[in-house]
Amino acid sequence: MQTDVIVVGAGPAGSTAARGIAERGGEVLLLDRAKFPRDKPCGGGVTIRCASLLPFSLDPVVEDVITGARMKIRGHREVTRQATAPITYMTQRRRLDAFLVEQAQAAGVEFRDGQGVTDITRLGDGTFEVKTKGETHHARVIIGADGANGVAGNRLGYEAAGESAVALEGNYPYPEGVPAEFRNRVVLHFGDYPGGYGWIFPKGDHVNIGVGGWKSAMGPRLRELLQTMCQTYGFDVTDLQNLRGHHLPMQRRGMVMAAAGSAVVGDAAGLVDPLSGEGIYGALRSGVLVAPFVEDYLAGHTKTLAGYQLAVQRDLMPEVETSVALMEIFHAWPDPFVWLLQHFGPFWGGACAAIRGETTYVDLTYRLGSPGRALLGPVARAGRFVSSRRVARG
Ligand SMILES: Cc1cc2nc3c(=O)[nH]c(=O)nc-3n(C[C@H](O)[C@H](O)[C@H](O)COP(=O)(O)OP(=O)(O)OC[C@H]3O[C@@H](n4cnc5c(N)ncnc54)[C@H](O)[C@@H]3O)c2cc1C
């Protein structure tokens, strides 16, 4: 098939990029190696800031609406906080991703599932040849949206995102409905999870339980930490269904995300929030950002998609970098954060406002004043040192 654009991968990043480009008049072929609907390892939490990026409601696939959190630090101190408005929607990825693909199809995107891309070649005239198992396609633009370490990024010559974080998650079934103690709130465990946390997310007929953090420190202990998390709430870890582990790709400093006629979006570009592990936001945001640059490229107004890279650096990277700093500080000294969450209303209010997209991490750091902001970098570096010493000691 000959088309304007081929998007490789139909996760949130790919379907959003494909929809945006089609809405701007581009002819788009969206390929995914999996047969849809397909599941993938993910908590399925869609923050309000993330849902706000979409021009349609996610209501058809929302299984719970989160308005509060139960947070435990080092297995003992518990803090419960309630928000004044919803902060996150709970979805299942097999339903969410299929729904996002349907929206792309409604915008005119041609979707083919069960079509794993095996090779991509840039031809002499600057167009691309894309091979799947049984077919060959040609396009002027390729968008790599096939997740971490995907074929697209690799064949197009992009550096793979870092794989410094890992997570393990499974589902505990509640066929009669999730008990009230888990509904409308997330359970979060901090302190024993270097670089991450443990979670329980409510869905329609099950809860999703997971643990994640730095691969170096958590990788060998994921199962043990998941078991402890389960024990705390009376679940038998052997009853968990669809137990799966996965990497969370993180941006490397200076990563290239776009070139002449190609770009990477979402996990393929390492756009996961280091503090929260939220990746659907980066996926949707990069999918939205890339579309106008593809339109300009197809119209012959530009010779490259480098403008997309600049837009990501302007709109997303300051948040990612601030998130890294907050993550380093939080994991080195979680107790003051939990104390602030418990006793200082504006701190919880600020966290909720950031999750809702009413403010940003960067804006929140302005509340520290100039001296506080100046100290953020050095304190984060000290935090990284403290955490690495702790990890080295075991
Ligand atoms: C355990 C875990 C829990 C998480 N929980 C959350 C959460 O609650 N909220 C949140 O916001 N983020 C969460 N994340 C992160 C989130 O899952 C990802 O950041 C997000 O899925 C990225 O979307 P994407 O579209 O870039 O990639 P993906 O969703 O990974 O989609 C990539 C697609 O590409 C397809 N593909 C791969 N290779 C090929 C190929 N060769 N040819 C064609 N298609 C191909 C795949 O089949 C897939 O459909 C979690 C991650 C993990 C590991």
So how many helices? 13
Bound compounds, each kind once, are: flavin-adenine dinucleotide
Number of domains: 3
How many strand units?
A: 18
**What is the general shape?**
globular
Helix content: 25-40%
Task: Assign the CATH topology of the largest domain.
Answer: FAD/NAD(P)-binding domain
How much of the sequence lies in strands comes to: 25-35%
> Roughly how many Å is the radius of gyration?
21 Å
The CATH first-level class of the largest domain comes to: Alpha Beta
For the biggest sheet, the summary is: 8 strands, mixed
Q: What is the CATH superfamily classification of the largest domain?
A: FAD/NAD(P)-binding domain
Helix and strand composition category: alpha/beta
Low-confidence stretches: none
Examine the secondary-structure arrangement and name the CATH architecture of the largest domain: 3-Layer(bba) Sandwich
User: What is the typical, i.e. mean, pLDDT?
Assistant: 93
C-alpha end-to-end distance = 55 Å
